[in-house]
Amino acid sequence: MVQVLKSTDAVIVGLGWTGAIMARELSRAGLKVIALERGPDRDAAESFALPQIRDELRYSVRQELMQDPKVETVTLRHRLDDEARPVRRFGSFLPGDGVGGMGTHWNGNTFRFLPSDHRLRSHLTERYGAARIPDDMTIQDWDVTYEDLEPHYSRFEALCGVSGKAGNIAGKIQPGGNPFEGPRSGEYPNRPLTPSHANELFRHAATEIGLHPFPAPASNASAPYVNPEGASLGACQYCGHCDRFGCEANAKATPMSTLVPALRQTAGFSKVTNAYVTRVLYDAKGKRATGVRYVDLRSGETYDQPADIVVLSAWVFGNTRLMLMSGIGEPYDPRSGKGVVGKNYCYQIQPTVQLFLKDEELNPFMGAGGLGMVVDDFNGDNFDHAKLGFFGGGYISLNSTNGRPISFRPTPPGTPAWGTKWKQETAQWYRRTASVLCEGTNYASRTNALDLDPTYRDMLGQPLLRMTYNFTPNDRAMADFLLGKAAEIGRAMNATVVAPQPRKGDFNVVSYQSSHNTGGTIMGRTPSDSVVNRYLQSWDAHNVFVLGSSVFPQNAGYNPTAAAAATTYWCADALVKKYLKDPAPLVSQ
Amino acid sequence: MLDRRGFMVSGGAFALAQTDAAAAADSGTNIKHDGAEASKNTAADPLYALTPGEAEFLTAVVDAFIPADDLSPSGSECGVVVFIDRQLAGAYGAGARLYQEGPFQPGNGQSQFGPQSPLAPLQFIQLGIAELDAWSMANSNVPVRQLAKPELNTLLQNLEAGKIALPRIDARAFFSALLQLTMEGFFSDPIYGGNRDKASWRMIGYPGLPATYAKAIKQYRGRRYQAEPKSIADFL
After folding, report:
1. Own/partner pairs, A358-362, CB within 8 angstroms, 24+ separation
2. What pLDDT does residue B108 have?
3. A10 by DSSP, 3-state: which?
4. N or C: which end of chain A has fewer CB within 10 A?
């Protein structure tokens, strides 16, 4: 029996960063908003209390704050003709779960994408000619420019109290910041975090070889901060427990720390937790959604929640899967190239160079999620690709994120994984090692895509989402290039051992790489090249809006949270100022 | 039975808990540690999931992975077998947060998908122990726990390198699980039964938690930060 609930103005599926921002904007505009979150509610003071929150085994290794694959996971195959296998335990990426979503356990890296990232195909065509872009590289423009998004990037940075140093204010290059960034309307809300010793060694070496290092923008507040929503953030304690953990100091910006206090005071807002949405109820004739169906994971009861507006903010896999299961939009067929839902799934390639510095004491356990020193000289199209056999790039950084010892204890190449020699090397190097990370772009490829798995099912018996994914020759060439540059910095740091770790073989879902998945419900100019228009409105259901990195047509060489949040503010702006007055397609087909 | 082993505890700057090791560290001298006593201590910990024979198998393996030397006591002396037994007896061992729906496709040679076994970790480890013991009996007439150290090391190296095939289990995945559980037990917070006396944290210089380094990150730039390591239990 399906129980039909009383209709609401808007229903939001998923209460992570994008869902929380949209909930705040719509309820502020006077709408009655119901957010459905399939995970639990958490009270930060209770759930993230000391000393228990500093438990590496529980939170980092056993992944207590993450999505439970027993409820739902994804499957992977590398090639179109392979049989997919389920990801039985999450590893390479870590989906969030519960109020706050991935925003609870992120590190806080808050980068804006480059202006060229937002209009990639046009940019590369103008600079290198259309013929240089490989046929299988299905990149496209966002159809929203950096200039469109600038105020919204700024708004998110203010919400989070981002610690950083501007590199370009209104076209004027600022010393100490990133000279490659798009023009900003102002400085960051907080000064940069205090750099670690390893950060300083990296800054010195990068400067020496002519690069342009700058402190990573971090949503870890360098000083106590009150955001425009009236929420207070504490000062970061550099405890090295951001990623995979909640923050007991309330210094890391999360939906809970920045938005939930305001949402609690908002009359029109309510949330339902443990509510697993299984369908968008879709009227194909009317080209509109009538609401969503969900199962209460505690009781097993099924409910229909009618709504005038449906917002999908369930991350890459959830958004794409809901569109496919609900029959909204044409599923993508990688063989013919027709259809759009599931197209342009991208991940990220993050090769690293491990450094060992015998005379340094680096205290790796002192760190913050976004504590890093970065160079952007080889990101995006900041360097000339005319004579290179690839497009894209990535930032190169030295992050002092954590030194938690179950997972962090690198040893030089050739060291056995156990035994006496392993112990000696571990004891010698633990305090004297650092990684130089390359945050590589991932440009869309015709065969990397998402669809419904024909075999494997979730807890409720519905098809899992299937990833067809592998690294492309462009990815590998790009990654090798970045790795060479990162090693150069390592040598300039006078490291005793410089150990590049190239990406070889098929993509693996076991070792952690990045939770920066994108695509599947991409934005674009026409219904034939995209799932949503430039306002993130579905071409096939004008009252469905899709948020988050699932709308990115390809992945940039940055952490995507700020871009996901900025596009959400951009969408909310259009929804409130345009759509509410005239509920219809915002872009004519 | 554990071998009698001597080991030296370094790092006299730390104020250790009152153990033999602490006495040695405080006096700055090396002592011969009585392995039999450590074994007695281990025996005092009840087994929740494993049989005594399985625990002996694991004792031999974790002590090969983490041999006693001047850096730390052996893995089992640090409570790693206790840790593994408790993990396998709990939610993790039962397959919490593990997708266990079929169909199952053997994972051999396909490590990029992760283990694809239908077994939950407790059953997986138990079957692995039985199969590797059977392999050892067939090849050298003794179970793994009775192998001499050089033979045990060779066996583990071969297992790690994929040179041993087991009939019903992915041998390399079994090796990975043994090594992973051992390292978790050695390096995790002592509240889980391993890392006794924070031996691994002392070994590498990890000060434990909770940690507020807002000032120290600048103050200790390029200088070693030393502190008596703190566990979650130290704050309760």
Report:
1. A358/A432, A358/A496, A359/A496, A360/A197, A360/A198, A360/A201, A360/A432, A360/B222, A361/A197, A361/A431, A361/A432, A361/B220, A361/B222, A361/B223, A361/B224, A361/B225, A362/A196, A362/A197, A362/A198, A362/A400, A362/A431, A362/A432, A362/A433, A362/A434
2. 58
3. strand
4. N
Cα separation, B46 vs B57, whole angstroms: 16
Tell which wins on pLDDT, A60 or B16.
A60
In whole angstroms, give the CA distance from residue B214 to residue B229. 18
Distance, in angstroms, between B197 CA and closest chain A CA? 15
Contact A506 B112 (CB under 8 A): yes
Partner residue opposite A510 with nearest CB, options B114, B201, B211: B114
Q: What is the ipTM of this complex?
A: 0.96
Cβ atoms < 10 Å from Cβ of A370:
31
What is the sign of the dihedral through the CA atoms of A255, A259, A261 and A266? negative
Among A312, A308, A309, which Cα is nearest to A322's?
A312
A516 is catalytic: yes
User: What number of residues does chain B have?
Assistant: 236
Pairwise CB contact (< 8 Å): A365 & B236: no
Q: Determine the angle formed by the axes of helices B171-187 and B80-89, rounding to 10 degrees.
A: 110
**Nearest Cβ partner for A50 among B115, B184, B235:** B235
Residues of A in contact with B236 (CB under 8 A): 51
What pLDDT, on a 0 to 100 scale, did the predictor assign at position A43?
Answer: 85
Q: Is B162 on the interface with A (CB under 8 A)?
A: no
Cβ distance of B222 and A56 shorter than 8 Å: no
- Nearest CA distance, A200 vs chain B (angstrom): 9
Select from A69, A409, A426 the Cβ nearest to the Cβ of B98: A69
Which one-letter amino acid corresponds to residue A572?
A
Considering only the beta carbons, identify the residue of B67, B101, B213 that sits closest to A420.
B67
Judged against a pLDDT cut of 80, whether residue B12 lies above it is answered with: no
pLDDT digits (tens, 9 = 90+) for B160-190: 999 999 999 999 999 999 999 999 999 999 9
Per the residue annotation, which of A152, A385, A516, A542 is the catalytic one?
A516
Alpha-carbon dihedral A553, A555, A560, A563, rounded to 10 degrees: -40
Say if the Cβ atoms of B67 and A423 lie within 8 Å: yes
pLDDT in tens, B54-64: 999 999 999 99
Best of A423, A460, A464, A504 to disrupt the B interface by mutation (most B CBs within 10 Å)? A423
CB contact under 8 A, A509 and B114: yes
Average pLDDT (B22-38) is 37
The reply to whether residue B113 touches residue A87, judged by beta carbons under 8 angstroms, is: yes
